[in-house]
Design brief:
Radius of gyration of chain B: 20 Å
Order of helices and strands of chain B: HHHHHHHHHHHHHHHH
Number of helices of chain B: 16
Distance between the termini of chain A: 33 Å
Order of helices and strands of chain A: EEEEEEHHEHEEEH
Shape of chain B: globular
Largest sheet of chain B: none
Largest interface: A-B, 30 and 43 residues
Shape of chain A: elongated
Helix content of chain B: over 70%
Strand order of the largest sheet of chain A: 1-2-3-4-5-6
Distance between the termini of chain B: 62 Å
Strand content of chain B: under 5%
Structural class of chain B: mainly alpha
Structural class of chain A: alpha+beta
Oligomer: heterodimer
Number of helices of chain A: 4
Number of domains of chain B: 1
């Protein structure tokens, strides 16, 4: 039975499985279950506001509480949580370009492009997709050039068509 | 001097009408009800035998009502991006089809039982089919249900209804003209082709068009948007595609920053002219025509509420939503409003079946209020 709302696996930056559901006319909703078992959601509205949602334990489809945040408030919250702003920008981008695929790819030790440069993989030439940023520990490196050496544990942000990103993922992770 | 006195009468009448709208709106807000049913009642009360006889301003209100429909559909189009519409068509076509068949059927059958012709039956099918996205979107937000897991299911169905409407309005436009079968088929095919091409153009070039029309000055943005919309709506009407669909397609084409700012600037203007539209629809109905259609309207409302609730329940179940969520999705599909009245207004303007106006007014009154209460008290 196909589900009406298509949830897509989005990110595994911190090994958190996020589910993404478009809400027509509103924006996109992301949700995940915390290690303690609470279900949390964030509605990213097109006008920049965010709804922070805590789901009900008895009725898992309903919100027990909703906190609406202005763009400034959510930026402040992100600062407090120590996050990067990349995810937020991707969410905006995804809504503008139909068919755009964005994936986080973790570089595993000894496989794929570990300890080699991005240029070595000829990712753009072969797949049409690009590595637009790399997360290394606490740092985020936007726009790494072809000479950039990938280290094991780096998380590369790949953007392109669905097929292109899949191919790039194979090159990067091996 | 003559002109001056008639201008002053228009102002007095228009002022009175807008104040009546304001009072009805406040009353609705006070009881946490949608404003559409109260605007309708106000229109009914201002019609036959009311102390405020609207004469001088009737032409202005009629044109204002036309602009109201165009603006209603423009903002509906702005609400959705072309990407959302194409995703809707690809992933939700089955749910959309079930929604259409299950909920147009009560109207068509009722019209045939009442002995109306084929064309009024097609209209009544549309009237029972369309859920009011205005009422539903506002209530979902008021009730803090935007983050709920059943909400995307409901909104996806509403997106499909809007796509169906973009195809349905041109078809009834042609049917009403009463052409022969061959002429009619050609005209329908032509109208549908125009809609399809316009949708494709907005998918491909939406971003470019949006950039071209955008401006940082609110004044210039408003003039550009209104000018482009009225022009396209008028041309669409001349091509028998219906002005409303033209405006909807303009709205869909707009995306990004211009859509956000356009929505902010245009929403209050839509509310004013939309109010005139509901008043105008009420004005055309003689309250004496209401009692005879009351019983059929009530039966139709009960049946159409049940079929819609069934559709919502089924769609939510299909997306593996739990029972309380299914109940909420069922209730959220029930409210009918602006679209039912737009369709009935088209029928009334064409002078089809005289009962269609009064019947729709009763039907919408029952389901706008009943559906809102159902949403509020479910879940």
């Amino acid at each position: 039975m196909p589900s009406t709302t298509r949830s897509a696996h989005l990110a595994s930056v911190a090994r958190v499985e996020l589910f993404e559901t478009p809400i027509p006319g509103v924006g996109v909703r992301y949700e995940f279950t915390s290690a303690a078992g609470d279900r949390l959601g964030v509605v990213v509205r097109r006008d920049g506001r965010r709804d922070l949602v805590l789901y009900d334990e008895k009725d898992p489809d309903a919100c027990r509480d909703t906190v609406m945040l202005t763009p400034e408030e959510s930026a402040a919250l992100v600062e407090l949580f120590g996050g990067t702003k990349i995810t937020e920008r991707i969410a905006d981008l995804r809504q503008d370009v139909e068919g755009l695929s964005i994936e986080w790819v973790t570089v595993e030790p000894g496989r794929g492009l570990a300890d080699r440069t991005i240029g070595d993989g000829r990712i753009r030439t072969l797949t049409g997709a690009s590595v637009v940023a790399v997360l290394r520990g606490e740092r985020s490196i936007p726009g790494p050039g072809p000479d950039f050496v990938l280290q094991p544990g780096d998380v590369a942000l790949v953007v392109g068509s669905v097929a292109g990103v899949q191919a790039a993922q194979r090159l990067l992770a091996g | 001097m003559f002109a001056a006195s008639s201008a002053s009468t228009v102002l007095v009448e228009l002022g009175a009408v807008l104040l009546v709208l304001a009072v009805s709106g406040r009353l609705a807000a006070r009881f946490a009800l949608p404003s559409i049913p109260l605007y309708l009642v106000a229109g009914l009360l201002l019609g036959e035998g009311s102390p405020i006889a609207l004469r001088a301003s009737s032409e202005f209100i009629r044109i204002g009502a036309d602009l109201g429909v165009v603006l209603l559909l423009l903002l509906l189009g702005i609400e959705y991006t072309p990407a959302e519409l194409s995703r809707g068509m690809r992933s939700h076509w089955l749910a959309g089809l079930v929604d259409f068949v299950a909920n147009a059927a009560p109207g068509v059958v009722a019209a045939l039982i009442l002995g109306w012709g084929v064309v009024p039956a097609v209209l009544l099918g549309g009237i029972t089919y369309m859920t009011s996205s205005g009422i539903v979107a506002k209530l979902l937000s008021d009730l803090d249900r935007i983050g709920n897991r059943e909400t995307p299911v409901v909104l996806s169905l509403l997106v499909m209804e809007d796509i169906v409407m973009a195809l349905y309005l041109p078809v009834i436009g042609v049917l009403i003209v009463g052409a022969t079968v061959v002429e009619g088929s050609i005209a329908v095919a032509l109208a549908l082709a125009v809609v399809a091409v316009a949708l494709l153009v907005s998918l491909r070039f939406g971003t470019k068009v949006s950039r071209l029309l955008d401006s940082t000055s609110p004044e210039l943005l408003l003039l550009t948007l209104l000018g482009a919309t009225f022009l396209v709506a008028g041309l669409a009407d001349k091509a028998k595609v219906s002005a409303a669909v033209g405006a909807f397609l303009v709205g869909v084409t707009l995306s990004g920053r211009i859509a956000e700012r356009g929505r902010e600037l245009l929403a209050p203007i839509r509310d004013v002219f939309g109010g005139l539209f509901f008043i105008f629809f009420g004005l055309q109905i003689d309250p004496a025509d209401l009692p005879p259609v009351l019983l059929p309207a009530m039966v139709l409302a009960v049946v159409a509420a049940a079929t819609k609730a069934g559709t919502g329940w089924w769609a939510a179940k299909r997306s593996s939503i739990g029972r309380p969520g299914r109940r909420r999705a069922a209730a959220a599909m029930i409210p009918r409003g602006e679209f039912s009245i737009v369709i009935a207004g088209i029928g009334t303007a064409a002078g089809l079946e005289g009962q269609i106006g009064p019947l729709t007014a009763c039907f919408v009154l029952i389901l706008a209020i009943g559906g809102s209460l159902a949403m509020r008290f479910t879940g």
